[in-house]
Amino acid sequence: MKLTAELFMKDGKCMPLSFLPTGKKARVRELTSNGISRRRMLDLGLIWDTEVEALQKSPSGDPVAYLIRGAVIALRSEEASKIMVEAV
Amino acid sequence: MGLTNQSTGSSVLGHILHIERSSSDQKIIALAGNPNVGKSTVFNSLTGMRQHTGNWPGKTVSIAHGSFSHKGADFILVDIPGTYSLMANSAEEEVACDFICFGDPDAVIVVSDATCLERNLNLVMQTLEVTCNVVVCVNLIDEARRKKINIDLEKLSHRLGVPVAGTNARSGKGLDKLMDEVWTVTHEKTSCTPLRIQYHEAVESAVSLLEPALTSVLKNRLNARWVALKLLEGEKNLLESINSYLGYDLPAREEVSDSYQKAREILQHAGISSELFRDIIVSGIVRKAEEICRGVVTFEKPDYNKRDHRIDGILTSRIYGIPIMIVLLGVIFWITITGANYPSSLLADGLFWVEDQLTALFVSIEAPAWLHGLLVTGMYRTLAWVVSVMLPPMAIFFPLFTLLEDLGYLPRVAFNLDNFFKKACAHGKQALTMCMGFGCNAAGVVGCRIIDSPRERLIAIITNNFVPCNGRFPTLIAIITMFFAGMLAGPAQTIISTLILTGVIVLGVVMTLLISRILSKTVLKGLPSSFTLELPPYRKPQVGRIIVRSLLDRTLFVLGRAVAVAAPAGLIIWGMANIHVGGLSLLSHCAGFLDPFARLIGMDGYILMAFILGFPANEIVIPLIIMSYMATGSMMEFDSLSQLRELLVTNGWTWLTAMCVMLFSLMHWPCSTTCLTIKKETQSWKWTLISFLVPTVTGILVCFIVASFARLLGLA
Question: How far, in Å, CA of B81 to CA of B128, rounded?
Fold first, then answer.
């Protein structure tokens, strides 16, 4: 998984938010979820170009707490993997 | 614990709550806001004790309303559920949206968090699209100042086009100004020009085509631009609400249908699907919020929340997260056990002194022996046991637990435990409802409303009983101190008690997870649904309010219920012990009947009967056991807790009996209040029965296995 994250970052391409290492920031490029899950993400303010910082992993590594528009939100990997981001 | 109050002045109008005005001058104010912004504090400070709580008609969402007056005018304040948006993604949002849009409030107060204003503006602006009678309450303004966040309220008001009041509801600061603004909005014909968000070109041209047609049809009953946006978005539930509010099918109206078709064509031509339409709207609002905050909110210290993040770094870290959680739980138990010992024996001494006086009184007036037995030995003594055994642990445990709640630690517990719940195919928020169960399982069951998915909600409801509520905590503590720790002396005693109690709770959590997983794989098959969990900033707890709230709301409520149940139960036990049939008392007959089965699961007939009679309230189980032993045994005088152990041992208790009683206390049927609550929440006898059976069968199995193994290995 780590290797993939580095690959993504080197190429400057989009990667799923779930790959973002803690302490790093990224910008939202695309939401690949649909329906209710997509609406939830939008309600959090996760629109194009929103900055997201991976703050803290939970003891078991999933979910991860993200700093989104001043609020700390925990997302399970299922949700985070459907948010495509570009590292900054 | 507002489970008992029913809403009064409200009636069902379609599926929208209709609030009765007591006079035509009375104004109805909706109180909206994101979760965790102190909305309920604002509500309580404005309405005081003049409140009613009830359920939203047809939905499991509770709603409170209260009244207040200001400048000689009367207002009804309706506390609608805390939500992030009005887009009806959950039952709460639907209710909030319905009331703001169709409940005809005279004004809406949107409470927002000063420390996180930009995000809160989302709801403010969605509300502004519906109505311009809005007052924005920027709460937690003191906390923002502490974090060096400055907010230019005047500029904000200017940009939003509606009045803004900065408040600190906890201290009451700014509430006068807030009420002034509400009064002005509802009593003066001011022309406000609320902010209007410009969306994507195609959206705007479609809306401008539809809006004039709607204006002429709607005649100010609803905001035409908002209705145009919602019609084009095409969300089915909302369209139905609009139609039922108006009483006709709006898009089908002659005056509307033509321009509606054209507007749709414009969108189609631009390639805007309904999903994309929603994206455009949400992005538009979020961008606008960003724009508004630029220059209004300034951060003197950009890393203002570093401290919180650092605390989270420790409290939820890979290595320390879970151990800290268990240690914290242990510390709370340790304080409870240590602190409860002394007042418990003091209370027992006092109450039994009163019993002696009562006896003396009965003797002096030469009352018949049966009357003394019934009232003093039966009723009063059971009451005395309930109070002395139950009150001290509750009075200590509740405030401590509420303190953790107030600090904001519970969401961190959910964060730490989420992966276990995910593996159990359950909802992440079940960790929160489980924590609520520590207070009261009935409250925990009601709390399960925060889980949207019906499958996961049922799992959370069925397994809630696996964490001991306040009624069962004292039972556990009493047995542990009497039986396991009693053998040791000095400080080791409380430490061992704490460890055992913590172990029992951890076992309860493990059983919750295990049973959730089994349910997910059998009767409630499915995958965990998506969820987001907010970790709100840590807040300085209000110690005074915590003590008052937990003592009044929780301790006295629970104690009152226990006392109400204990008195008749004491009567029954005494009666059963003293009515003889065929040479044996009724009590012995019943206990004898239950005995063979009870022995199988490591207990005896009297204990099992106490559990059965304890169905209305778990608090009385231990007092009932004591009463039945005392009623049948030769030893009649007990005046201290330390002598209880002897009583139990002479009645055949071993460590195994104590262990099985604890396990069965942890895992047996929910109390009657919880069962009724489950029925109310699930609307089904079937699921109530399952919620009754699952913990009961689990408890019987576990006790049977433990007892059999211990006997097989010759340990007991």
Answer: 18
Q: Rounded to the nearest 10 degrees, what angle do helices B655-666 and B685-712 cross at?
A: 160
| Structure ipTM | 0.89
- The mean pLDDT value of chain A amounts to 85
**CA separation for the pair A46, A83 (Å, rounded):** 9
Cβ-Cβ contacts under 8 Å, B534 against chain A: 71-74
Query: Where do the H-state alpha helices sit in B87-223?
Result: 91-102, 117-130, 141-146, 153-160, 175-187, 201-218
Distance (Å, whole) CA B204 – CA B160: 20
pLDDT band, residue B167 (cuts 50/70/90): very high
Cα distance between residue B613 and residue B387, in whole Å:
18
Chain B interface disruption, residue of A60, A64, A67, A82, most B CBs within 10 A: A60
Is residue A72 within 8 Å of B534, Cβ to Cβ?
Answer: yes
Q: Which residue of A has its CA nearest to B306?
A: A55
A23 touches chain B (CB under 8 A): no
Q: Which CATH superfamily is domain B10-187 in?
A: P-loop containing nucleotide triphosphate hydrolases (3.40.50.300)
SS3 content of chain B, % helix, strand, coil (to 5): 65, 10, 25
Using a CB-CB distance cutoff of 8 angstroms, which residues of chain B are in contact with residue A34?
A: 275
Query: Cα(B297)–Cα(A60) distance, rounded to whole angstroms?
Result: 37
Q: Mind listing the pLDDT tens digit for each residue in B457-504?
A: 999 999 999 999 878 888 888 888 777 766 666 677 778 888 888 999
> Do residues B591 and B577 make contact, with C-beta atoms less than 8 angstroms apart?
no
- Round to whole Å and give the CA distance between B381 and B633: 16
Task: Tell me the whole-structure pTM to 2 decimals.
Answer: 0.82
Question: What is the SS3 assignment for B310?
Answer: helix
Contacts of residue B582, Cβ cutoff 8 Å, sequence gap at least 6: none
* Residues 6+ away with beta carbon under 8 Å from B556: none
Could you state, in order of their start, the residue ranges of all structural domains in chain B? 10-187, 201-271, 321-712
Of A45, A57, A63, the CB nearest to B286: A45
**Interchain contact, B275 vs A69, CB within 8 Å:** no
Q: Does B119 touch chain A (CB under 8 A)?
A: yes
Query: Distance from first CA to last CA of chain B, Å, rounded?
Result: 43
Asked if B316 has any chain A CB less than 8 Å from its own CB, the reply is yes
Contacts of A50 in chain B (CB under 8 A): 286
Residue A9: predicted pLDDT: 53
CB atoms within 10 A of CB B483: 23
Of residues B156, B150, B79, the one with CA closest to residue B111: B79
Q: How far is B629 from chain A (nearest CA, A)?
A: 48
Instruction: Give the separation between CA B109 and CA B184, rounded to whole angstroms.
Output: 13
By the 10 Å C-beta count (0-12 exposed, 13-18 middle, 19+ buried), B193 is classed as exposed
Q: In this complex, do A59 and B416 lie within 8 Å of one another by their Cβ atoms?
A: yes
Under an 8 A CB cutoff, do B534 and A43 touch?
no
Q: Give pLDDT, residue A52.
A: 95
Contact B502, B329 (CB under 8 A): yes
pLDDT digits (tens, 9 = 90+) for A42-59: 888 898 889 999 999 999
